[in-house]
Amino acid sequence: MLISYLKIAWRNLRKQKVFAAVNIAGMSTALCAALLLSVTAYREWTFDNFHENSAHIYQIVSEENNGGSIRTTSSISVPLSAAIQKEIPGVKATTFMAGYNLPVRYGDKHFYLSTEKVNASFLQMFTFPLVKGNKQTALQQLNEVVLTENSAAAIFKQEDPIGKAIELNLSGKWQPFIVSAVAANLPDNSGISFDLLTRFENEPDYATYKSDWNSSNFPLFVQLDPGVSKASLEKNIVPLLHKYYKRKIEDMQKDAGASAKGKEVFLMKALPMTSFHLDERSNFYSGLNKFYPWLMIILAVLIISIAGINFINLSIARSFGRSGEIGLRKSLGAMDRQLLLQFWAESFLLCFFSFVLSIGMMLALLPYYNQTFGHNISLHIFQNIWVLLGVMVGFFLVTLLAGGLPAWKVARLNIVEVLKGKLGMGKSSTLRNGLIIIQFVVAVVLISCTSIIWQQLNFIQSAPLGYNATQVISIPLDNATPANIAAMRSRLAELPEVKSVTASMLNLGMGKDGSSGNWTRGFGYQNKQITTQCLVVDYDYIKTLDLKMLSGRDFSRDYGTDSTAVVINEKMAKLLDVADPVGTQFSMDEGKPLHVIGVVKDYHYESLRKGIEPLVMIINEPTALNYIFVKVETPNSVRSISKISAIWKDINPLAENAASFLDENTQRMYRQEQRFSRIFMTGAVLAVIISCMGLFAIAVMVMAQRQKEIGIRKVLGASVSGIVLLLSKDFLRLVLIAVLIAAPAAWYFMDRWLERFQFHVNIHWWIFMLTGLLAVCIAFITVSMQSVKAALANPVKSLRSE
């Protein structure tokens, strides 16, 4: 019976080639987009889920209440780790992670490996299986390292790496280490990434860090015993903080005043491992908003819905041309379920062909999709039985909904009305019109959102940052020594295009090394607690970046006292709350007194998502410098950066990361927004194309139904333009209704999105007017293509049967 239905369905589809082509093209495109978006969301949600202890592993982050504003930091003081494990019940293990790209030497070969310095318990906490060695004994000695399969193969080729000695460059010195184990290559959905593991105690200055409660430099992870909850851990940390941070908490409570009464001003929160990838408080935050995977699913559903609406509309409209067949079958005794199965079989065939075509499209587009949207989806994800099951269930749901509704509606037609030629056109038109409105609501929302995101990106690119970003080159130091920096200064002084050279602890924006960060410190001043960003800089920092000096002076080699001097920004000057901040003294972390020598105008040293915070620049820690900044004046920027990069490579052969201009760095900070823009734009284009395909096909059928009406109007003297307007206005009215519904929805979504930026554009009414006008024009062009054809047709042909 089913085979018979499929054969009949195949013959009917061959007779309706245009109908079949429109449905297959629209549905296959939508299914391809939905597949790509859905597997992307699935991958984002399943990061780090392969760890056996993932339900019991948390990252500890601190929260400070500074008089109403909450500051969250992921860096924790080193001695707190031992205190947590010793004094809080239910804590099974702890580990710090300090990640760097380190030079590695084996014989005369050099490599750069992504290195994580961890505690001895790391391999017991996290599930990184060893292919060689024993995880119970690996990393138990300070001079041991664990390599991944790929890094071991790159270094040792066919040799057995176990027991072999390699050298790591730590703080400019080569030190020997023994390979004790080899880990399997990391899954592509691992948030923790490394080529080499070694002990955390090999961190420079570890001897100082391990007893320093005031410095917070590294992320801390804890594993709880089964049955111990996150809430229990957070509750038990509170008395620990009051014990070891008593003075800090008292100062913070004084500063917060009445707003802190009865509240904790200094807390530690536990982030579940399953949320590391999408929680911006985590050190393994991917840069994606936690709503991002949901956005993928929502877009997938919207695109499939638009294609499904086309399918339903076209199937119902096409059924009116088959009234004779339906009436004859019913009069000969065909039951409703038999008609339903026949029409659903046709829908199933269409959806099956669309699904097969969508798989081929996905395979062809996958490399381009990954490159365009910054993803790393591979076909291996379809080896997961849950992914395959989800795809099959999704396909049958789409087939059932898109094909089932028209089949059910046709099967329920009254035989008498069918034989009289009355098929309930009014009700079908209402359903059709409602579905068309939904299609264009989606399209207009996506177009509007794309326009506003594009405006915000333009604003970001053109917003004044307060420093020179177009003529300054940033060079990562890559473990260079102070002697390398001095040599670089000397060599750069010989280049005529180089106007100034300086160095800094932190980059501006995000360089090609993928690094960005901040350094927060707090101190007491005049009975209040002040929290500020700190920045270690070299001489000529203000000059090189063209920062504006408001009062005082810059750091100078002519002043021996500048080793205890600081330069602050306007925000910090307001916090000090003195008439003239120059000369003001304060101490950080109970260190030596610092004195203010100058105040610079506020500048955006962080993303425009954040407001400008207080800043203190220090010059007395040269070993903390990580980037060289070079100001150039040249008509050929590409040639200059190539020349400077070559000089740096000659001075520091171990240099790995490329130099970049600061304006490039600032743009890299907004990759998420650029990704949003591309996704919305692609979704909007797909929505418009699929909607127009359906609108065109519906217009063809409506024109066919009104063929005689058009012929009569032409005979009675109606003009071509009048007929085109008459035939198009009903569709344009639907699009206008869709615009009115979509505009407030798009405004709401984008207003919420813009809240993430401290500095952003305003949403203007004319954006929605232009978007609506664009939608109306697209719809008019789509409908008028068929309207003009119908209006120009010879009325004799349409009326000769009357």
Give a structural overview.
It is a multi-pass membrane protein. One of its GO terms (molecular function) is transmembrane transporter activity. Residues 297-415, 683-790 form the ABC3 transporter permease C-terminal domain. The chain crosses the membrane at residues 20-42, 291-312, 339-365, 385-410, 431-454, 679-704, 731-750, 762-783. Pfam families: FtsX, MacB_PCD. Helix 14 (425-462) packs across helix 23 (765-792) and helix 15 packs antiparallel against helix 18 (637-651). It is globular and about 100 Å long. The chain is of the alpha+beta class and 802 residues long. Strands 14, 15, 16, 17, 18, 19 and 20 form a 7-stranded mixed beta sheet that branches. Strands 3-4-9-6-8-7 form a 6-stranded mixed beta barrel. It contains 24 helices and 22 strands. Strand 1 and strand 2 (69-73) form a beta hairpin. The longest helix has 38 residues, at 336-373. It has 4 domains: 1-47 and 288-423, no CATH class; 54-278, no CATH class; 443-461 and 670-802, no CATH class; 472-668, no CATH class. The model is unreliable at 421-427 (pLDDT under 50).
Features of the shown structure:
802 residues, alpha+beta, 4 domains, seven-stranded mixed sheet, six-stranded mixed β-barrel, 50% helix
What's the layout of helices and strands?
Elements: H1 2-15, H2 17-45, E1 57-66, E2 69-73, H3 78-87, E3 91-106, E4 109-118, H4 122-125, E5 130-132, E6 144-148, H5 149-156, E7 165-170, E8 173-183, E9 196-199, H6 206-209, E10 220-224, H7 230-244, H8 246-256, E11 266-272, H9 292-319, H10 323-331, H11 336-373, H12 385-411, H13 415-420, H14 425-462, E12 472-476, H15 482-492, E13 498-504, E14 520-525, E15 528-536, H16 541-545, E16 549-552, E17 565-569, H17 570-576, E18 585-586, E19 594-600, E20 615-618, E21 627-632, H18 637-651, E22 660-661, H19 662-668, H20 671-705, H21 707-715, H22 720-754, H23 765-792, H24 795-799
Helix pairs in contact: 1-11, 2-9, 2-11, 2-20, 9-12, 9-14, 9-20, 11-12, 14-20, 14-22, 14-23, 15-18, 20-23, 22-23
